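Q&A log
Question type: sequence-to-structure
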Amino acid sequence: MSTTNEMQQNNWWAEGDTPVRTNSRVTYLIDGRPTLLSICRHFLMARRYIYLANWGITPKMELVRGKDQRAGPDGSPEQEALVAELRAEGLDEAKIVFWCSHNLTAQTVLGYMVQQGVEVKALIWECSNFFSHYNPKVAYQELVDVGVTCILDDSSRGILHHPIESLHQKIVVVDGTHAFVGGIDPLIELNGDFDRWDFPIHHFSSPLRRNKQDRSPHPWHDAHAIIEGPAAGDVELNFRQRWNDVVQRHHLDNKLLIPEHPLASPLESDSLIQIARTIPEHTYSFKPIIIRGISQLYANAFSNAQHFIYLENQYFWLHAYYGIDIPFLGTDSPEMERNIRELGAALRRGATVAFTLPDHPNVGRAYTDAALARLLNEAPEAFTQGRIQVFCLAASTTVDGHEHYRPIYVHAKVAIIDDLWSTIGSANLNNRGMRDDTEMNVATLNAELARDLRLMLWAEHLGLLSEDDLFAIARHLGHQHQKPELDQRSIGLLQYLKEKLGDPFVGLRLMIERAQDNMRRYKANLPLIGHLLPYLTAHEATQEGLHFREDHGWIEEPEQSHELTKY
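Response status: OK
Response body:
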């Protein structure tokens, strides 16, 4: 059996773009509530500049909601505790007053920081009309109206591009010292569904998540990361290259060009860290012209795996998707072909591979089913031995004595290898994440960080902890201020999770049992415990006698009443 020290000597990294850093730190953030809360606080602590580049942005979306924005009336113990927390985080009195007296939308917060003399720049993806997830021109105008300097980035368009290429990074840079990278955009899609702000507990519906029709969007599971130290400069380098490329290509005012800033001071760290990108050919003119660093990361990591691979992703496709949900019409993706071969080789070495995928991806359900079938063919004995496990997530609620179910949209892009190496980012496991879209991931080699990420994800999926406990542990792991008694409780809860889930094979057995039990509960119209269910292909769902629809999977109720999700 390979030792941890031996595995650390393996090649985990991408070549030809950004360096591997030894002097930076990464904190993982699970789901929208803690992620957008942290982003908002860092916006307000900015002193010099804020840079944003996203797949989509809803400027009037509230980044902070409920008791995180105002915990109670002025003078109440709850509100005083919130004020003390904001003060400890570094906000001055004027910003605390602003926090407690305004709806903390992206537009309001960024506009306020412009008024404070902070330079705010946003790179807005000018998507084609084929996409309808947001309106870039409206977003542009809403940010410009409050003083944000915006550029519409049309770099994914043209006859030489993949027909549905997107600028898919979700990044924020604050003062060059902190950067955010991951799967979460500050976005509510135009159809009113898929609000990125959600609780880790993923309620069936919530009054804090409502659209214009007063309906609660589908629960949304995601992951993000905050990077501190010189590695934040690698995220800034990417933003600067993209921004300046658009300025120069469109012959805009040279005053818009972003100069190079000094790297942040080095930090003490136990992690090796790399920022990796996918940049397709013909998209930008900076060098290297083609970057497939994320593809390299995944292939190297899978080839190093000895015992256990855990993946969360929106997609798992072998074939390239061109807008039609028929897998055999898509060309093979060389990068995903290699990924599946490496996964198969790991399985043949005796490793276990587990996935958490959405039951109802927005597109490409048949593509995922086809790739899973290919993986089973790579290592059929692993399947018969139970070493390939695939889950999905759902929420339930009781109304008038009857249980109702909704799929949780899995949008996280997470990989954990042997509780040693991990990555979070924007890149999906498909042709687009590996080759055809502009993406960014952060990867770390740190056993404690990888294990704690897995513990937090599995505790959430198993329903082991309450919302407040999950939130407190997240703040503890992120070294964020909270009441001493909450921090002590977090330490105890984290120890409980280490004892219960620390062995990934014991934890996986609990995941399998919970998913199977929840399947029985689903069929018996009983409440789910936690969120886990087996992922079923179209064929498997039909065999189980379930109502499967290509656009909705098998969990979504065919005629779910609007009243169930109304507030």
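Response note: The two ends are 55 Å apart (CA to CA).
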